Fold:
Amino acid sequence: MKYLVVVESPSKCTKVQNYLQKSFPKHTFIVLASVGHFMTLSKKKMGVNIKKNFAPNFIECKDKRKVINSLKSAAKKVDRVIIASDLDAEGEKIGYDVANLLGLDLNDNNRMIFNEITQSALKKAFEEPTTINMNLVHAQFARRILDRLIGFEISRITAKEIQRGVSAGRVLSVTTKIINEKEKELAERVKDTFFQISGDFKGNKYDIMETTFKKEFKTEKEIDSLFKKFQKAKYIISNATTKEKKSSPPLPFITSTINQSSPYGIRATSGILQKLYQKGFITYIRTDSTKMSEAAKGMIKKHITSKYGANMFQYRKFNHKKVKGAQEAHECIRPTKIDRNPDDIKDPQQRKIYELIWKRSVACLMKDAKYMSKDVKIKPSNMSITFDKIVNKYTFLGWKSLYISLNEANEYVEGFEYIKKGDKVDDIEIRSIQKYNSMTGRYTESKLVNTLEKMGIGRPSTYATAVSNIQNKSYVLKGNIEGEKVKSLLTFLKNGKIIKKYQEETINSENNKLIITELGRKTTEFLDEFFNVILNYNFTAEVEQDLDRIQNGEIEWYKVVEKFYNQFHPQVETHKAKLKKEGKKTSSGFIGEYKGKNFYTLSTQFGPRVIYGEKGSKDILYLTPVNNALLSSITLEDAIALLPRTVGRFEGKDIVLHYSKSLYIKHNYKNVPLHWSCKNKSKTDITLEDAITSINEFRLKKSKKGKRKSFSKIKSKKIKSKTVTELKKEAKLKGIKGYSKMKKDELLKVLKN
Structure:
């Protein structure tokens, strides 16, 4: 029997085809990809018929015509079509579209579902096909239609009221608001200073380092008085209570927690996870369930028992739900084969992420770590406040043995058993450090994902998109805060002497944080004033809960859309009436004059622009503001900085630096991207040497690409000109199985690969 199996990503095709062919050698499998969604909502009349229960009008994507035609063509040559799209709501909608495109019966068992790309998982999924889950499809309908209604209706207004290109979105706008609220919170903080005191002490057979004095002080005068008391004091351990404690391993990874643990940005992490999944190294990556299959637990148990001993394994059930509506049919993110070590993966980024997943998956089924915890309090003889320190000594590492050795864990607790109440100790050093209250706390990408998850906004499949979109729209930038330099007072008591000195340090600096832009701030404030329904955190979270109810078959999808549409649509109508009354607003504005020509702002269909010169003149320049800046905030200085800059000459031609979304070079009528080494340089920092390096590197890459193209064309022509007998001989030499039964088009396909 001949099958067409439709997956989402082209990178899965070969692996899925090989596994199915090995598992079912009597059948023939053609595996093609839908390349994501190939149907989209029409832009005519929003693509939604509001009067007919919000019926969607999905049309074919113009850029997917080749994909659609190849699927139709392949379906005619096979006995049966099997849909193998991803197992979330988006995947189910793609599967539904494939079924409709190819005329499949939605009641037939033509859907295979798998959580990992391994031979055993695909074999089982193929042997146990099911129907398209219409509840998931309808949930995706509702999500897509709501997003279209909100985006379409409100974005028309923001484009008029703020500037063209400014849009609103159900998740986009709320995510931007979260960043804006953090910025407002930081702006309201009052700068203040205080002094923190710590001390190191020495006993008979032990040291107790980095103890914390349980009171903070505001003034230098208080510190001076206090240190004079420390100078005269004797020190005694007033408490040394010991308790046995344990530390349980963290839960297996889900989408949000792997993003929080990753050393890379959310977009990079998502890409790495996708590659690991498609290569069959890990299970499905968009999940909010910590559930782990019994088969996986058995596999991990075998590994733990053989490597660490039976006493290190601890069976656990992971039924913790991080958010309401967690999809319990999904599993956690884990390795598909625990005997595949991280060192087996060549790519360093993929290896790093896989190691995190591998270790967490093993650790969560290991015994708790056990340790003795001693609550030590050291009291100066002339005061009641104490220096405190919790001293821990591990007796059994359990799951922590994956990350650290027992000697490393207990490196700084020598003499633990000798620390007793009533012991006299000597001060090695007591320190006072001037601190400033934090003006930091902006979100990183992973921290934002964690916040979205806690608030019930979005789902695993939408986190990366939400974080990327706010940056793509220039509402938020990922950048650094330089902080400010201050002089901090340090006071020491050492060898009976008080020493005071100042040290210069930078405070409140932050790196790779999400920072609201002026455009993001104004857009958020506008939406909060006139469309507060969609910026209400509860509204967005409630939408997600109702989408989960649709998935569970508890409510009709169009009723959910109707419920929320009726909440925000009246605000749209009110504002439309207001705009009609006010009349049309001007789309351009005068900025200032420079070298005899004027700068103007202009809101265009391509986004905000700055014009240098008068309309109709030959030398007019259209300039793109940096990060699509808010037009009303652009100053004359900003506009001048946008002008092209001549860096120098090369090969008798000027090298001119331009900006459009990013910096690039224009040389000899050609646009040249800047070399990667110039990535963090500003427009004024780019040198002639940088520009020449960029041009030469660009030429080198282009020449290599040209050679590869021409070689592949020659090779392709040579192969196509051969007879079937010649092709079979070549296939035999390459060791291709089943070549003798293949037709010419099949032989051409395998030989090209």
